[in-house]
Design goal:
The chain has two domains: 6-100, Nuclear Transport Factor 2, Chain: A (Roll), CATH 3.10.450; 111-307, Glutaredoxin, CATH 3.40.30. 38% of the residues lie in helices and 15% in strands. It has nine helices and eleven strands. The strands form two sheets. Strands 1, 2, 3, 4, 5 and 6 form a six-stranded antiparallel sheet that branches. Strands 7-9-8-10-11 form a five-stranded mixed sheet. β5 and β6 form a beta hairpin. It is elongated. The N and C termini lie far apart (55 Å). 33% of the residues are buried.
């Protein structure tokens, strides 16, 4: 099928805002074909506003009854090279002077349920905290590491138990060759020790550049990850045989399920945050995170802390202090 560009979709949404405010006119008969002149006007507007290539033919259907007073529905399709797009629904005013589009969206579902935080180790407040931050994370991603170093001390200092944080795995295997191994190993440890999971994640994010040695060997990085996971498991007194078997098996089913869910949420980069369902892409300044958390708290009937005031100098602050320091092993914090 032919695809419609993002620019086109944004244009259609903009037109919908115009259409809703238009004055109602007497309805035209349902199924009435457009005149050749009116059909051409619709086509010329669509071509001008969306830059449809000249090889695409635009077909404008007849008027049908719509849900919007003063407007009829028409369907427009695009065809080229023997293929035809799915029909796009437009609104055409009954006086033939205004073209628009009206979209309906279901907002009955709690946005907090858009992405699941179930069965993942949590940090910060309890699982029933008023705000949940779900982070799609890649343990080899430098931007994830930067966000990780900033977020936890800052969130805990500002919100305490009001915010619950979980990580979902989203290793970008095309550019980060040991990220999948790190996700699987940390998931193996998480099954027995949530605290050990977070200590391992802290360490890997802080020392990611060192894994693999100077020659960036994937084999060395994988071996280091296995060793770090087992060492942390021993510190947490988990069942070492079960942990070792899980690491050796390298079952990626859980991680791939997380990736699949991320893809369904249109994630194409890490880190990606969902703050009670509101999406935030990339390692953004903490004030953006604060604003979204504050809004989520208000929506949940909670009172957020006083407004955040960004620092006036470039000097490091506590919100940018890593959770571990160079040379530390996980569990020695």
């Amino acid at each position: 099928m032919l695809s419609v560009s993002r620019q086109f979709r944004l244009f259609l949404f903009a037109l919908s805002l115009v259409a809703v405010g238009c004055h109602a006119q007497p309805p035209a008969p349902a199924g009435q074909p457009l005149s050749a002149d009116l059909s051409r006007r619709v086509e010329i507007l669509i071509r001008a506003k969306t830059q449809v290539p000249p090889e695409y033919e635009i077909h404008v259907g007849p008027r049908q009854k719509s849900e919007v007073p003063g407007f009829d529905a028409i369907e427009v399709t695009f065809s080229a090279n023997g293929k035809t797009s799915k029909p796009l629904a437009f609104l055409l005013s009954t006086d033939g002077k205004t073209l628009g589009q009206f979209n309906k969206f279901d907002i009955s579902k709690d946005p907090k349920e858009i992405v699941s935080a179930a069965n993942r180790p949590g940090r910060g407040g309890p699982a029933n905290a008023p705000v949940t931050i779900v982070v799609f994370n890649d343990l080899e991603c430098p931007f994830c590491a930067r966000m990780h170093a900033q977020m936890f001390p800052a969130i805990v200092a500002r919100y305490g138990d009001q915010v619950h944080i979980v990580y979902r795995d989203y290793p970008l295997q095309e550019i980060h060759p040991w990220a999948m191994r790190a996700a699987i190993d940390s998931t193996c440890l998480a099954a027995q020790s949530p605290d050990g999971y977070w200590k391992l994640v802290d360490y890997v994010h802080l020392h990611a550049a060192e894994l693999g040695g100077d020659d960036k060997s994937i084999a060395k990085a994988n071996a280091s990850l296995d060793s770090l996971t087992i060492d942390e498991g021993n510190r947490q007194k988990v069942d070492s045989a079960v942990l070792a078997a899980c690491i050796a098996k390298q079952d990626d089913a859980v991680v791939k399920a997380s990736i699949k869910e991320g893809e369904a949420l249109n994630i194409d980069a890490t880190p990606t945050l969902f703050i009670n369902g509101e999406k935030l892409d990339g390692a953004q300044p903490m004030e953006y995170v604060y604003r979204m958390v504050d809004d989520a708290l208000k929506a949940a009937g909670q009172t957020p802390p006083p407004p955040f005031v960004p620092p006036t100098t470039a000097a490091p602050t506590s919100s940018t202090t890593p959770t571990t320091t160079p040379g530390q092993k996980p569990g020695n914090q």
